[in-house]
């Protein structure tokens, strides 16, 4: 019996766990016999090496320390008795320390779990806010969402969102009109019907300039950035849109044959257009300089000075006039061209333009799918 | 009124502008490209600028429409009008007598 108990105890020790509680009770069985010295040595070693004397854990995690104390036994020889007493005292101390450590550990775990729960709630809230902001500011329409939009006022946000939506519709309508032009030119429709078609296409462009004028008043920098356009279109951006002279270059080859007079007139228009463009470009360069000077002015380390910033913002608003002027130039170029050309030629020119922009948008889609492919 | 009339009669092409207005600058560049040196009157640089401004307004010109262009003593208009005329080819005709080349 005693040997088996002893073996049990030693075996537990070898596993790294001294679990004498169950064993201790059994020591009372050693009535009359001497307590094996080797057992005492084992326990002493255990205590010395500071191996954990683990208490049996309670499942319901009560705070009350399990009241386990090791009782004395005076049935042994005095010398052994002393050693056993000493062992008991030491073990009790160790058990108390362990209980305290376990209690602290449980408290820390509780605090950590609480923190995790709070973070989880916060994350859910943030996700909801982000979703709401996205729905307010984002609308699919040829371009993407500019990250800076999420920060600005609600009204500006919704107006820009409206613009993006309307521009999306505009593009769809333009593609439809381009298809109509194509089928009209392939079939033999009358001149009056053709004229109506051409007028419709021109007015559609003018609609765009009206849309842009409103957007320019809301956020001219957004309009100038061209984020609302397809990526390839942005490469050709000039003051918030296409270059009028570029327009003429695209459609001129498709409206031939031209009469002598027409050739001269187109030539003059191209030159005037180029000159007007250059003048506006130079005006913009001056605006750049003025703005740069305004932002750079003031002593270093001043940071943001409100009056200076306000004056700079007023200068930025001059940009609105430039965008409006550029759109006016585009409109006038289209109008003049339609005056020079016959109805048939105008239809051909507008078809060429529509195809050109369609191809630029396709190029943009192809490009973005190419760049998003995994390497 | 007097000053405005005097200036527009004295010089072939007159641009009423403001030194800070970049669109005014753009229009003067256009005239220069076409071979004309316009007389640019900057309202903010003249002590009598306010009177000139008032005179222009009395003529029916909105101050917000600077630059204001006069050719041969006659009011042509602002940037829009100048650009439209140019694309039509009419502007060149108007400034021919005043071209320096």
Describe the 3D structure.
Chain B: This is Glutaredoxin-C13. Chain B: Keywords: Cytoplasm, Redox-active center. The complex is a heterodimer of chains A (375) and B (101). Helices cover 73% and strands 0% of the residues of chain A. Chain A is built from 12 helices and no strands. Chain A has helices at 2-14, 20-27, 37-48, 78-137, 154-186, 191-218, 220-225, 231-235, 244-251, 260-296, 306-340, 343-371. The longest helix of chain A has 60 residues, at 78-137. Chain B has 5 helices and 4 strands. In chain B, strands 2-1-3-4 form a 4-stranded mixed β-sheet. Chain B is globular. The termini of chain B are far apart. The model of chain B has no long low-confidence stretch (mean pLDDT 89).
Query: Termini of chain A, distance in Å?
Result: 72 Å
Percent of sequence in beta strands of chain A: under 5%
Structural class of chain B: alpha+beta
| Oligomeric organization of the protein chains | heterodimer
> What are the secondary-structure elements of chain A, in order, as H or E?
HHHHHHHHHHHH
Overall form of chain A: elongated
The counted number of beta strands of chain A is 0
Tell me the number of structural domains of chain B: 1
The largest β sheet of chain B comes out as: 4 strands, mixed
Number of helices of chain A: 12
What's the CATH architecture name of chain B? 3-Layer(aba) Sandwich
Structural class of chain A: mainly alpha
Q: Mean pLDDT of chain B, nearest integer?
A: 89
Share of β-strand residues of chain B = 15-25%
Q: Portion of residues in helices of chain B? A: 40-55%
CATH topology (fold) name of chain B: Glutaredoxin
Structure summary, number of beta strands of chain B: 4
Q: What is the overall number of helices of chain B?
A: 5
Chain pair sharing the greatest interface: A-B, 26 and 20 residues
What would you say about this model in short?
The complex is a heterodimer of chains A (375) and B (101). Chain A is mainly alpha-helical.
